[in-house]
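Re: How this chain folds, sequence and tokenised backbone to follow
Notation: Tokens come from a learned vocabulary of local backbone shapes, not from coordinates.
Start of record: The labelled sequence and token lines come straight after this line.
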Amino acid sequence: MRIQDISKALAFLAAVIGIASCSSTKSVPEGDRLYTGLKPIKYQNYEKSDHFYSTQEEVEAALATAPNGAFFGSSYHRTIPYRLWIWNAFNSSEGKAGKWIAKTFGQAPVLMSWVNPELRASVAKSVLRNHGYFSGNVKYDVNIGKNPKKAKIAYTVDFNNVTTVDTLEYANFPDVADSLINATKDQAVVKTGDPLDVARLDAERVRLANLFRNNGYYYYQSPYASYLADSLNEPNKVQLRLQLADNIPEIARHKWYIGNLRVNIMKKTMEQLKDSFIYRRLSIYFNGKKPKIRARLLLSQLRLFPKQMYSYSAFLESADRLNNSGQYSSVQFSFTPRDTTTSCDTLDMAVSCVLNKPYESYIETNYSNKINGRTGPEVVLGLKKLNAFRGGEVVDLNVHGSYEWQTKGVSAGSSDDFNSYEYGADLSVTFPRLIVPFLKRRRYFTTPSTTAKASTNVLNRPGYFKMHTASGEWTYKWQNTEKTKHEYSPLTLKYQHLTYATHKFDSIMNANPYLLATMQDMFIPKMSYTFTYTSPKQYRNPIYWSITASEAGNVLSLINMAAGRKWNAENKKLFKNVYAQFVKLESDFTKTWSIGLKSQLVGHLNAGVVYSYGNTKRTPYSEQFYVGGANSVRAYAARSIGPGGYATTDGSSYIDQMGDLKFQGNLEYRFNFFGNLYGAMFLDMGNVWSLQSEDNRAGSKFKISNILDQMAVGTGIGVRYDLEFLVLRLDWGVGIHLPYDTGKGGYYNIPKFKDGQSIHLAVGYPF
């Protein structure tokens, strides 16, 4: 390019930048300025501690204001403020279309008058006081840039000394309440030496209120006690007294006990109930010959009973159990004094349960389209019968089917050879309890469950094979705490049967011993356990982690050993068919970072390994790993990557692009466009590998030195529409790197841009 051309280009670029700069302040009124972000906040006179860091976080939240074009919602960094330019271009338009564009896609200028740094500094100063920094101060300066219509804000936060608690005294409480306080002093939220924090003081009052209500004081409330402070004796220290008011109601001064217990089973709210009967300690009211819920089930879900002292925690547990059972659309508790005398200490309890509709239907859809590959929809239709046997049981029947076809790029044969479809059905019965002989009853965080399930599935690859899979399983689920869940399947029996295979596929299998071993008729007697950890709901940046360990065939092999057969003997049979023997480990981890009110950054890792030995040296086809698809590496179709650096030559990727080892990583930024429409930008990577060398799949064996180069990488964008009850998702994935030699050098080795794209239409988030 000539120097004159470069000069012209630079001049043009400068003109564009100048116009854009002018356009950004077009709507700024006279006497005001466009806010362009914060200068790094300066902190003075502080001591590092957990209390300081938590206070600092709240101060920054009070001072934070995102400017136009904020980078991931940042108050400090900006990108191109294109939404502001759209606003300036169309906001003054007289037509409806222009105003709609400005409102929908534009963003009004963030003005200094709207930011109001004086008010925000005042709020931040209140934050300091609430955390014990009573002499703290917040100042600000407005820094005007080269353009006088733009400005940044520079805050200075002076913490100074923090006031701490010298002593805490509890006064004027009745003897019984005072003894409860003394017995639980080690659980006190406020202790000597703690910063004088308003949130902690309130938390201590709430702790006492819950303590009293768990011990019979139904009518006690936390505002009945208040703090008195004395700060005269020593600087930056305060003596506290938490004192019970003299004028609290008499009903709040003594314990209460449960009287009569009534349970109303209704089909709709305010239904008049005509029938009733008494079961042990329950008076059950309903309409009809018998209640829709077994009395024994109701008794097991309640934690408050007649003659029992009222307990707030028992009430919460009862409410949670009933609400989480899935049988009721609403559950309401009421407690009424037996009479109005001052000596009354009895509360009659009533529980009103409105039943859900007996049947519930659902539909799930998934659609993927590889622009130069396979495409097809998947549909699941299901029907649930709630409370099937009057014991809270749920019967779930669903049918599912999918169809996949090759749209173009078929290298050999007809496109029909690459079409495929899959269909099947599942029937399950879930019981709201653990059905285990001799198991002693114990309390769980939520109602445990036992599920019996039968499934059948048919996979048809026209021109190649048809495989029929039938399975049955027995599964227990329970939850000990809010954060941890357990799932144990003592027996899952699966049978895969190759119904037929074409001569073409027979020749492929005969030439590929690995494929022949994985596709043979086989029983899979499996046992599995899954542990799941989920952060509490109130966490701003929660995590999700699950790990599943499973095995197959080992118990049978032990039985065969007892019968005299060697552990390593191959081709041992169950019902005249070889059974699989392997161990398998899978893990899934998700971390979410909240960025602003409606933006999130989500990281996801998924890994797994399966090792076959003893009776079978190859893992069954249905137990192997794959990557690609709507919930994996979205730039590529399902089962179109790997294993390792192996690449198919005939386009039949779904046959042998499976592996024994899997690693997948995803990073996705989710943000709000407007209303219920959200956008996403993502980066995906992953692959599968084999654990053994295979002549027919060159480069498939896992080697730590090749892991980075053999990781398929893709990026893309997407949109999501939140219907509240489900999320519709459309993702466009673009390939960056393929794990095998494509004939193109460099890290970006996609031969043609159009060949490295996939479009996925799905329901729900990918992870």
